[in-house]
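debug: dumping io for the single-chain case to check the tokenizer round-trip. Nothing else runs in this session.
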Amino acid sequence: MVHEYNLALIIAAALDALAAALHIGVVMGGPHWYRFFGAGERFARAAEAGRMYPAAITIVIALVLFAWAIYALSGAALLGPLPFLRPVLVSISLVYLLRGIAGPFLLAGTGRSQRFIIISSAICLVFAFAHLLGLAQMWDRLA
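debug: decoded output
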């Protein structure tokens, strides 16, 4: 049996997994990495002080991104169908799209660097495009 995999969702899954791995790297890299990746001075200082919440929040984000990668692989037909596959993929796509479009407005004044806000918003739009393209291509198969 020949399987037809969806390249856009495979790319989306790889992007999700890369973003998740970078979040884990930030936790491991400590305060300097929080600063470099633009998480904000509050997070960096909290990490320097040994507070757990920067790492906890960052790890939760990483886990969500890894879950999204798994859903994208399921949508790409590399994994078996997961529960609520179509609505979850729609939700993931919308979250990335909204974060990409609204991010510059919602994150202004939060202590995150302007560089972080612009770059992360652009990245989210690329991620949204990959997810939306794959979703559109696989829509009928995800019923």
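debug: round-trip ok. The chain has a mean pLDDT of 94.
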